[in-house]
Amino acid sequence: MNKLSVDIPLAPSGGFKGPGTGPLSNPTAGGGTGIEAFTKFISSTIGLMTIIAIIWFIFVLMTGAISMISAGSDKQALESARKRIINGLTGLVIVVAAIFIIEVIGRILGLKDILNLSYLFSQITK
To answer: Which of 43, 49, 59, 67 has the most CB atoms within 10 Å of its CB?
Structure first.
């Protein structure tokens, strides 16, 4: 039902296509479905955020180390630099552990592959 009662086509010939050359540009020609595009987006976002967290940790580690070196005999500055390094390490551990925590929660809920969104959506739609 692509037409109004006066025979005006509602869709372009060939159907709607997404912009660019990504997975939604032509889903029927092997480009993937919306679920696969969403899965790739989430996977890429998680990877990018992990890389950003690692770079941030290295930055915090270096600035903390420089602060420790330049602190000299100032105990308060030394303690501040030490706390900065520990906070950076704690943040990195939390970011890396989050993936494992999500996996454990998935296993508790009975979802053996919770991080594979294509599989998860296929289980939901059954």
So the answer is: 67
Query: CA 73, 75, 78: angle at the middle one, nearest 5?
Result: 95
5 burial type by CB count under 10 A (0-12 exposed, 13-18 middle, 19+ buried): exposed
The pLDDT of residue 81 is 93
Angle at 55 between CA 63 and CA 36, to 5 degrees: 160
> CB burial class (10 A; 0-12, 13-18, 19+) of residue 64?
buried
φ, ψ of residue 115 to 5 degrees: the values are -85, -10
Instruction: Specify burial of residue 88 (Cβ count, 10 A radius: 0-12, 13-18, 19+).
Output: buried
Cα 39 to Cα 105: distance, rounded to the nearest angstrom: 19
Which pLDDT score is estimated for 80?
A: 94
Give the pLDDT confidence score for residue 8 in this predicted structure: 67
10, pLDDT greater than 80 = no
For tokens 């092997």, the residue is 30
Identify the residue whose tokens are 């991080």: 115
Q: What is the DSSP letter of 3?
A: B
Q: Identify the DSSP state of 9.
A: B
Instruction: Give the per-residue pLDDT at 100.
Output: 86
